């Protein structure tokens, strides 16, 4: 019988041909050839080792003076917490140290807190960003409890644990008995000053409670000028952190003696936190930290070593690229 | 009447799981159908599987084991069984489905004797199970407790009001969404609020919204089509006149008139038709996809009455309750105090179209949602892919990880709280608001235990991405993409049937890459199922077209002229000149003999001739419509020799015999049944003689042939038959005898009483048939070829090279099966054949033991022969028949059969019943982890298609049942090669890589979050913003994996076809397994460590803020994860570049946007940190340090222990595979020529 010709009348459902539907689009098929592999590894080495060296030297050039003072700036009694909480005690403390190497301006003054969990979930969440910008939003304190409102229901501006625990030690530096100016302008991000902390919002009912967490704010200065608060409100990522206190706009020479007068107000004793004063220069790598340099050296070095190993492998145990005779069924037909 | 095969095919869908069948004999040659004025051809058995099984008519039950099988099986089908018991001693068409030629038993016959064969129509319908329809009295019909459904339909799921609740309810059936929801709800509790409310609900809301929009759109379209459908107009009898009525207003009991080419609005019992004999034709394309015309009959009693419209009323139809069996209907009608029974051939169903009939009048019995068409609106069964099952295992591991991480965090938090218990108070984390009270209470501190518990829940929320919910969604998207490519592949388009590849199941694409066993049907799957009359043995002489002239080219086939019109059969058959010559010499004995033979071919069937006009107005083609391709082939053959069937009505046929047009009265017809395996028709010839023509399978025909008449001829015919079947032809034996008048009258009275019997009709009819079908004169035998499909041998060769075992399961005779086996390259001459044909359990056991011994001997020989290539010569082929399988399947011998068959290269099961096919699939499936695929085209394959891991339906000649039950359907067997070797391979590689990658991607993020939690007093602060962690799997990393999952190709098409062995990677599960999972987790650990700790240490003792560091981390992870993907991409398309690099860019943009929002704590953090060089140095360092180990391992493995895929990929790139790579399949040399040998 001849075939049925009835179907010819119907519209053919044959899929229209296109390279896309037939999965035949042009494609680039990179293959890891020995040359490419060695090339990649060597390139990595060549790029990473210099960067590592640069980073190391940058870190090397950073001059950093760290002075822990929480343990010495307090009478050696058991009543550390009582001492620090008593507003009447004299908390002035004088520290001196020597500059080991010339520090070029700007020299940054940081305070460093250890074991202060500024990333504790309850702490991090305890803030109201709306309140900081919008004068009308001062009542949006729902996230700030227990530091949202005063006992009689007035909103605290800025509310929340973060603001409440504002760091309030002060440092004044002098070099050879001459006062060393610490510039506290522009220590916060410009974006914070212009868009986050409003010039129209003033602190209210702040630190009025019975329990004082930290520093107070001048209620006549708008938030946009409270740069210490802005720095403090940028919560740190880690339990130990530094925050910028100010900048010294002059060079410090090697072996210069620096005297610091510290007002040791901030209570870290109740949670065994440490306080350190850090004076440091900065480079592109940040502060003194040679990890990046070492890591880059290690990665670059490893790449080169691997490149060499692979070169040896390709030389001493070569395998023709894509030789079909290496296919498993060609090697061992019995297993087929 | 409905096509038999369909009836059976649809049915299996309703049967949950196949069982091993009993062991009836399998009829080989089917035949027949019946035409009878009052009881027209009833269609098919309703319950193909269960009927034949449960019914234990004594002579079939050969051994106790089958009893046990049956009783086992009956448990699931108790209802049916009961109904059979009630049916008393009636034998209902036992084997039906196993019958005939392997694949399509249904096609032949399988009609039970008259209406009795059809399920349980012999049974009285109990009143409580019946629906009473008063014809033309809808009011009474629908009164009170009998309120039947109206004819308005609703395929839409939702209404405007119910949409939201119902749609949400349905969507939350997915466990993944519930997980999402629970997490989101947890997050709403104030104590647990880890993420902002918006951020935590976003992903879920997004997914729900998208799905809801999609559902709403689909439902809107359904609403629209419902409305159109409901408002169509039909002609309904009202007050004695036919008037228009909308479809939705039609109700049960009304009388409706349908004109030609109209669509039926509801299920109706035919009352009368424009044809005086009550015949009408319907096309059921909408119902089952078949375009054949089916014949339906109005009862003579009503046909007469209906002309007088007034008298239609007063009839009472009592029919069964609505059910979804399209091929079954039982009812009876009271007319003038007489009860006549109605069967499936008296009902026309909603959705069918009336053809070739001017009009019909019918009474509505089922309307609207109770119509069979609507009841059958069900989706395909869903399967789960093996990869997905595996994946779920790994997801459980991941959830254990999750629990472990959460436990670590919560316990550590407990320890932390304990160690800092004095300080908590002072640090204000847990202090009550009112400080003025002397007793300072702790603020929201719930005690150590509760705090630990809360932290546990919070950590679940934070680490929720550990369970890759997005994976489920992306896998679905990727599968849709893959399905798109499979459907669009023009290499899998079948021109002859104009059918594309179809994906009916979307969720098992990747299983196609892991198939180990292919179970194939023969007829219609390996072969074309286009029957071609090849040769005949008439009167002991073999005419096998030796001197055939091909009429195909010249179109010079036989034709007759009537009234100036030329009438020609639509298909021409090669004509044997000797036979043609002989057919013209009617005066000789041989001529008369041949004449009887040809009349038998033309008359002994149920074929309906239809005249088709052609473009040439002077030429009309005559087309034979019928259920059985074999019968069609025989009728076309007869027509080519000048015996052209030109007219059939229910009572007579007209055969154009070389110009004359004698009219033969069809006095009776005994349908094919699988017990007798023959059919017969009683014809009143023009010369007033009455003749019985019988055709059937050789085994049963020779029992009823009077061999004494001409022993030599019988012998010769037998040897011809053997020769035919060895050539792979399907054989039929034809006999006849004359009936004397007295004998005829006796037959007629018993036939009448049998066919009107209410009880046991089928059995009675069979007895009547057996009385008539004896002492036959052998006329001859015919050989019909079922041609092998194009490309089958090559396909089988490729599959075998790919390590796939191909088993052929067929209902055909052993000789035919073996012969097809050779021509399809399943069997080769090098193979040692083990043939198992046994009749008892003991002999089966012995055969199996012997075969295993033989195998051991052979393998010893080959071992001593130094292995290797020699093994090929000792390949085994197992040939086993259905009878033996009866004693093996579901007994302890199964184990042996499995052992043996697993050692055989080829397995051929012949004469197997449909349920045995499923049993064989189960044999493998239950004992190995190997993936099985079943492919078939007929109703008899449905059970195995559903049983196998992957079921493929061939949309061929045999209707749609197999396709309906399948997961994929296609037009040709050979498409299996591109489907498995190319698409299956790709799908598997893509999905498995995608799953691993998605695990990795999410776990990296979780680990980074986890590391950070260790530095926050275990309080689950996240440095990464809420929005970033939510967008991570939605925007930052989702697109590349989907694009790669859809588009990436590890190897090209031609390579995969050239080396089918590459398919082994999927079979061995090389791309996704436990080992890879753990390697991935290790890699993940390392990468998360670099991503987290490099910034951590680099920024140690610095002023960096939490937001800035969080931005660095999320960017580091996203770049790392995307570059990781980029490293593994094999083929870079433009769109891949866009997706990968675009995602990184998008992440930067998103991070910037998030940080440009002054109300978020992290305002401007990104811009501040991105100004520093350290940030960029960190990013670079993370990416390189994170990926170097992976890169090195990759290169090392590729050099020292490359996988086949890697070698082939390199070879492909460097051109070692070019040249013959374009050939799709290996050429085949010696395709056996079955024709033209003499």
UniProtKB/TrEMBL annotation, chain A:
It is found in: Membrane. This is ALA-interacting subunit. Its main location: membrane. The chain crosses the membrane at residues 31-56, 295-316. Keywords: Membrane, Transmembrane, Transmembrane helix. One of its GO terms (cellular component) is membrane. Belongs to the CDC50/LEM3 family. The gene is ALIS1. It holds the Pfam family CDC50.
TrEMBL record, chain B:
The active site is at residue 521. It is a multi-pass membrane protein. Residues 133-198 form the P-type ATPase N-terminal domain. Residues 1-31 are annotated as: Disordered. Pfam families: Cation_ATPase, PhoLip_ATPase_C, PhoLip_ATPase_N. Belongs to the cation transport ATPase (P-type) (TC 3.A.3) family. Type IV subfamily. This is Phospholipid-transporting ATPase. It comes from Salvia divinorum.
